[in-house]
């Protein structure tokens, strides 16, 4: 059951992914936002020429429709599979599934770290039960979770295959070829997930040891034909069902642009499409065959797709050369920062924020802690997995560093710890039954982040946050509290894949404590590694 929840969790945060969906911005929304602060100027007149990364404006349209390759017979280069993006998205999905198994399954963690890892992996693959259908996993895992996994991997292929990405559901050869090509990829991924060196044969070593099922009625090595079949076959049926809903239900009601929360609600009708979009850093409602708009401050303003990075030389003249060697007008939108190259085609559009990022940031991060620390808390062997939504506002910009106010909301926090006083019995002999898991949500209204090298595409940062999480039960102790206060200190790297979009890798040392508001306050410290995605907007700029 929890595997199904893990597959759905990216969609729960899909509202905060960064799509390139253009939509008009209501004036009252702009008016409600604070003005952009002015960075401190340190660029003296007559400064020497320097080389830096700047944000420039080029001339492509807001949205380039993909080439229609569904009937191509010339083997055009434009119609070849986008292998780089396919491998990147699939690797991200694989890592997400592995992290979910490690967090939710005690025996995945225990077995992965015991013995010679490579020998156990080889034995797990060699001992696969090819003579048995059932693997004795829960029904929802085998017949709902795995078909959904197959549908997600189908969509990962489709969105990177020009011969498939623009094909809508119909009784035609291009559509059935689309299903067959995606099904072949889904089958390959299913075998990789079960038998590959980054799947369940290596992370958890399913196959080389027996374990009881959830009901304690059978022991098996967790292998069988069932998921190798239900993943691609069930995935194909799931994909065709979502294609039908997209064509006959979702597309007719999309209109010219809706509230992003309404668009997110529609995306729940197509969870596999939505999740695959998020894995390529698009909004869940993005479609390759048509333009889907959402009305929000966070969607792309007109001309947003013209903004890109370029390395350029700046000197006393106040001008530079564009990518084509033609002269462009240079305008310093904000004093003290590198000028912006503006091509004549962008006249009439909003001015361009001259650095990577912007005034307002909105995003989400997902973290995992499998090892407890003991600087402040003393409860050990605690696993922690938070999923947070974050907003930051630029309050103090400078040439070499910036300061942001950075509050967060914990959408979902999962805390897992050994059950105090539990003793193995004949009915429950395994350690996996001796752990307790609690779920909670909360806010961290106090938060600050300092970013360094703000004009660069890769920016180190330091952060701190403080707040609370409320859980569905008392945590860490029967005499503990459902309220847990938190404070953390972290660091990491922002990596800007586009001028207004970034993803981040970070680490936080997090202390969780009930501050002695209950009879017992064991407290715990989490070493949380996380990945974040964000998009930026600036009032009056693009």
For this entry, give a set of tags:
542 residues, alpha+beta, 10-stranded antiparallel β-sheet, 3-stranded antiparallel β-sheet
Written overview of the protein:
With 542 residues, the chain is of the alpha+beta class. 27% of the residues lie in helices and 27% in strands. The chain contains ten helices and 17 strands. The strands form four sheets. Strands 8, 9, 10, 11, 12, 13, 14, 15, 16 and 17 form a ten-stranded antiparallel beta sheet that branches. Strands 5-6-7 form a three-stranded antiparallel beta sheet, with no helix packed on it. Helix 1 (2-12) packs across helix 3, helix 1 crosses helix 10 and helix 3 packs across helix 4. It is globular and about 70 Å long. The protein starts with a helix and ends in a 5-residue tail after the last strand. Mean pLDDT is 79; it is low at 12-32, 39-51, 59-64 and 312-347.
